Amino acid sequence: MQATADVTKKESSWSSWKGQAIDLLYWRNVKQSGAVFSSVLLLLFSLTQFSVVSVGAYLALAALSATISFRIYKSVLQAVQKTDEGHPFKAYLEMEIALSQDQISKYADKILLYSNTCMKELRRLFLVQDLVDSLKFAVLMWLLTYVGALFNGLTLLILAVVSMFTMPVVYEKHQAQIDQYVGLIRTQVNSVVGKSTK
């Protein structure tokens, strides 16, 4: 009975997390989506100008400045008002943040499964178990050389973040027109592929 309750709880938390991510990407709460979008873009643009170590150090200094300033402000406020509210971050200090052995085991198992699957697929592709799949992989790698020549990894990551936050909203607003054009493109591609295989 306990195992069923745990599974139901995990599925509920997963669907809740998934729903929150969808709400974030579809801009259901504009302030929250804007804050996440702008902070991620600021971080990525900072990484294009500074090293990861510098950005991490600056972020840590900013967080420490904010928390130390707030702690001093609350201490002064308590001294002036002669109240005894205690530490302003007491609730966060008492919060349990340790990972359980089950959580670590679950994530380690998933990482192991994905790693093994990836290694088997790469072995299959590089050792040409299926010639067609290996040729497709070679074409993909060849195309990626051109993408790599035009963009670096951070630029691609910035484009991915901007796309994640804009494409769902654009598609939601203009779904009929986009579906119509995608259908036309798909028809053209299918006709070209059909003619080339004959």
From TrEMBL:
Example of a GO cellular component annotation carried by this entry: endoplasmic reticulum membrane
Organism: Sphaeramia orbicularis (orbiculate cardinalfish)
UniProt KW keywords: Endoplasmic reticulum, Membrane, Transmembrane, Transmembrane helix
Lineage, uppermost ranks: Eukaryota, Metazoa, Chordata, Craniata, Vertebrata
Name of the encoding gene: rtn1a
Membrane-traversing stretches: 35-64, 150-171
Gene3D superfamilies per the UniProt record, alphabetical: 1.20.5.2480
Topology relative to the membrane: Multi-pass membrane protein
GO terms, biological process: brain development; endoplasmic reticulum tubular network formation; neuron differentiation
Chief localisation class: endoplasmic reticulum
Origin: domain of life: Eukaryota
UniProt name for this protein: Reticulon
Pfam families cross-referenced by the UniProt entry: Reticulon
Domain Reticulon: 21-198
Localization: Endoplasmic reticulum membrane
InterPro entries listed in its UniProt record: Reticulon (IPR003388), RTN1-4 (IPR046964)
